[in-house]
Design goal:
Blueprint (H helix, E strand, L loop, with lengths): L6 H9 L3 E2 L3 E2 L6 E11 L2 E11 H9 L2 E2 L3 E7 L4 E3 L4 H4 L4 H4 L4 H10 L5 E7 L2 E9 L5 E8 H21 L2
Antiparallel strand pairs: 1-3, 2-3, 3-4, 5-6, 6-7, 6-10, 8-9, 9-10
Length: about 170
């Protein structure tokens, strides 16, 4: 692979903005990396692009820490629907496209299509007969979208617990 052909490098050079790659899979080792390209400007003139590669685990550890209820979780997709970060690492190394994978669930597929082409939002959908909540937001300065989803029952359970706690604290203060 010639680095000068990669989109994140071209973006850093042409737009003179720091750019992050989608996951890059080393064909020899199977290891996954992310590239960060930053333009170097000297005396208001573009000089070159500085590139650093970081192991995928660094970003994945952060995303894996996103919890929503008991089973809800977060993951990152790019604007084409490819999984960029997920607690299920195989979704990244196998280049899972969530838009394609969700075609059997039109409601979810439409949500993904909307998420990659819009502002932050929330929605709900049914999966295996259970109502799910999903939230999404673009990540600034990337072509990525953070997705968080959880069963409605778990979400409502945490809200109900918070309300009961507030009532309890209020009553205790009387």
């Amino acid at each position: 692979i010639n680095i000068k052909d990669l989109e994140f490098y071209k973006n850093a050079k042409n737009n003179q903005k720091t750019s992050i790659s989608d996951p890059i899979i080393d064909k020899k080792t199977g290891k996954v990396f992310l590239g960060i390209a930053a333009p170097i400007i000297y005396k208001n003139e573009f000089e070159y692009v500085y590139v650093v590669y970081i192991p995928y685990e660094k970003i994945n550890d952060e995303v894996s820490d996103i919890k929503f209820g008991k089973t809800g979780h977060g993951y990152i997709i790019n604007k084409q629907g490819l999984t960029v970060a997920d607690k299920t690492v195989n979704n990244v190394s196998n280049q899972l496209n969530v838009i394609d994978a969700s075609k059997k669930n039109k409601q979810l597929s439409d949500i993904y299509k909307h998420a990659v082409n819009s502002n932050p939002g929330t929605d709900s959908y049914k999966s295996d007969g259970k109502e799910q909540l999903i939230g999404y937001a673009p990540i600034p300065d990337t072509n990525w979208v953070l997705i968080v989803n959880a069963p409605v029952k778990e979400f409502m359970g945490s809200i109900n617990s918070t309300i009961l706690l507030c009532i309890g604290v209020g009553l205790a203060g009387l």
